[in-house]
Every structure is written in structure tokens, then in C-alpha cells.
Amino acid sequence: MKIRAITIGQNIPFFNRKNEVATILEKKFPLYTEFNNELIEEFQKHEIIVETKRICSQPIFSDEFQWKNESELNANIDVLKDQIDLIEKLCKTNGLDYFACCEALADKIKDIGNLEKALTSDIPDLLKEKDLFFSSLQVASTNNGINLQALKYCAKIIKRLAEPDPFQNLKFCVSFNVEPDTPFFPSAYHASNKPLFSIALEMADEVFDVFKKSTTLVEANKSLKKRFREIYDLMTNVSERVAKHHDIDFKGMDFSPAPYPTYEQSIGSSLEELGFEYFGAYGSLIAVAIIKNCIPKEDKVIGFSGFMQPVLEDYTIAKRLTEKKFDLHSLLLYSTICGTGLDCVPLPGDITERELFYILLDVCTISITHDKPLTARLMPIPGKIPGDDVEFDFEYFASSKVMDVRRLENKKKKDLFNRNEHFFTFL
């Protein structure tokens, strides 16, 4: 087991022209460096490695920033670009690896038309330019409904980021029902005036070890529940002790067992070790449910805290995709129980915005009707068709192939993608 990320949430006064951002962050970031160093040192005593230190802020745009015209918007975007540049420099100076801020909680903004350029062009361009910057766009929540307009924007953003380098879509996701201070990127965002921190775990290997040793489902369920409780107690004790010393609140940990691209650190391998022939096989949904069921139901368990299935980040899942053992519908089925949705999915380069919109709408509907957090991080690969090889020079990605998807051909008169519907709420 490792800690994928310590994520600190910090409120940042975007669009402030009085140098307030620099004043706040130049004071805060060195304190976070001290905090991270002590927390890492404490975890090292238990032979737990921390891979990254991260920071997230509140969403960039809200009802407060509905500018009247393009000239006013462009002026504020210039201010934002300077601030993102400053944040990235301060991150590098203070040993923080990545920074994330949600573009907007669009489920709370019924008409975001005057922000279209900022959401679909300016922010994606910043993502391409900045090495440490991640972002997301939350388009729906069970309480507030679905912003269909924003969902279309997300399809446009994904296509824009895919050219010329599809790797840029690693830094953006569409989110649904995601709560503040979920520690996994890109969906992380902050919502409090007071700073706090949360932890993302990388522990598919723990699930693998338990399932490999188990000879029955009952044994697997009992042993994994016991192991997860041990991890919960250890993580909570260490985190709360250091938090108290530095006067920063510990929000909690996301218990999703994130993988690493080796066989024994794969959640796909874990399912197969439990006795199912391959990831995606009929019947294996019960293994997904066992993992979810074993996660402690405690206050400090936050975020997705469920089954994690990032296609390119998981050695065995990536391998089974090359063997055509599962498809997008398999991942959607698992999403009814899992905690992440569609993550790091390599798609044909010619997939259209309309097709992406409908894929996102399915994930959105699962999230809303099941009242659970999900994300979609889709990666069209320019020039590639289904079955073509996919390989990135990135430590956390395994080699795989482009996934085949059901294509759309005929546009009906009532095609939702082309209708002027902005918002939908289940009554």
C-alpha cells in the first residue's frame, strides 16, 4: 500500500487584482511544506510511501462571475492566467506536485452560455500550457439536476484537449455528484474558507493479497473487511495527530483501492484471483460489490470510496482490453456499484462531440439515479481506430488498445444533442 496523494484544500481569491493571491499563498505554501514533511515522516515510520503532495482550490467560476460582455471576460481571464502561473511557480518552489481547481459547479448554474469561451477554450488552453494544472467540470448532482448545456461543453473540451496530444485529457474530467475535498485528481476541489487536507490511497495490492489467499467469497469478504479496518485505524490515527499539531483539519481518506500498472497491484488481477476467469466476465460484479461492501462506513471515509477501474492505469484491465474481454458497457455496469465511473478510457480519435455527449449522459444518469459520485475521463486518440495500440511514456499507464464503441449515424429530428435544452431535473 502507498498513499497516492496528500491533497490540501485552500481557498484562493481568483480574479483579485490587488496581489492578494500572492500575499496569501506565499505565506501559506511554506507552512504546507512543513506539514507535508512531518506527515510523510510519520507515515514512513509505518513503511508507507507518499507519492505526491497536491493542492486544490474552490471552483473558478460561479454565479458571482457572470460577466456582461466578452471584453470583460477576456480581461478577467488574463488575470486568471497570471494567477495560475503564480500558483504553479509556488507549487514548484514549495514541493507541491500538482494543483487542481474545478472550472465550475455547473449543476448550480442553470445558464452558463456567457462562459462558453472560458470553459471550452481558455481553461483547456491553460491545461495544455501548464504542467501541474488539473481541472474538472461538475455538470450534475442529485440535488440540483443535470446541466445539459455544460455536458455539451464537456464533449467539446475533451475533443479540444485530444489535439494534438491526447495525454492532456489525463488532466481533465467530467464530474457528477462529487463532494468538496475528494482527494483524487482531476475532480478535487475545495469549498471551505478554512484549509484542510484529505488522503487518496493506492492499495489495489491489498485487495490482491487478500483475494489471492481466499478460497471462498465469505473468507474474502471477512478478510478484506478486517484489513481495510486496520488501514483505516492507522491512517486516521497518524493523520489526526499531525493535523492537530499544525492546526489543519483532517477531512478524511478516499478508500478507493487505486491501482498501479503491475500485475500484483491491479484491481483487475484481484478479481481474477478471486476465481473469475477474466476482468469483465459475467458474474464478476459480485467481486466489485465485495470491495465496496468492505470499505469502512465511518466519518473519515470520503470521496468515491469504491471500486476503481481506470483502464490505462491498471495492468490487467488494460491487458484485457487488448483481448476484447470487456467493453464500455461492462464499465458502465460496474459503475452502478463502483466509485469512479469511466476513467482513462482510450477511444477512437474520430469520435464525435455528439457521441461523447451521450456516453457522458449515461454516466451522469447512473450517478444521479444512484446518488453516488462518478467521473468520466475519456481519451480520444487522434489518428487511431479501435484495436490500434495505445502507449504513453507515463509511469502510471500500461500499454493497451483503443476501445471499440457503438457509433451513432443518423441524427433524429428530436436528437437531444441538437436541442436547446439547458437543464433537466428528475421530479
Helix and strand succession?
EHEHEHEEHEEHHEHHEHHEHEEEE
Mean pLDDT: 95
Largest sheet geometry: 12 strands, mixed
Distance between the termini: 43 Å
Low-confidence stretches: none
Strand fraction: 15-25%
SS-based structural class? Answer: alpha/beta
CATH class: Alpha Beta
What is the β-strand count? 14
What helical percentage do the residues reach? 25-40%
C-alpha Rg (nearest Å)? 21 Å
Find the CATH topology.
Answer: Anaerobic Ribonucleotide-triphosphate Reductase Large Chain
DSSP summary: helix tally: 11
What is the CATH architecture term? Alpha-Beta Barrel
Describe the structure.
There is one protein chain. By secondary structure, this protein is α/β, with parallel strands linked by helices. It has one domain: Anaerobic Ribonucleotide-triphosphate Reductase Large Chain. Helix content is 40%, strand content 17%. It is built from eleven helices and 14 strands. The strands form two sheets. Strands 1, 2, 3, 4, 5, 6, 7, 8, 9, 10, 11 and 14 form a twelve-stranded mixed β-sheet that branches. The longest helix has 30 residues. The mean pLDDT is 95.
Can you give keywords for this protein?
single chain; 427 residues; alpha/beta; Anaerobic Ribonucleotide-triphosphate Reductase Large Chain; twelve-stranded mixed sheet; two-stranded antiparallel sheet; 40% helix; globular
Task: Draw up the topology in text.
Layout: E1 2-9, H1 20-44, E2 49-56, H2 70-93, E3 98-100, H3 116-129, E4 133-141, E5 145-147, H4 148-162, E6 172-176, E7 196-202, H5 204-213, H6 217-246, E8 249-254, H7 267-273, H8 285-294, E9 301-302, H9 315-322, H10 328-335, E10 341-348, H11 353-370, E11 374-381, E12 389-390, E13 400-401, E14 423-424
Helix pairs in contact: 1-2, 1-6, 3-4, 4-11, 5-6, 5-7, 6-8
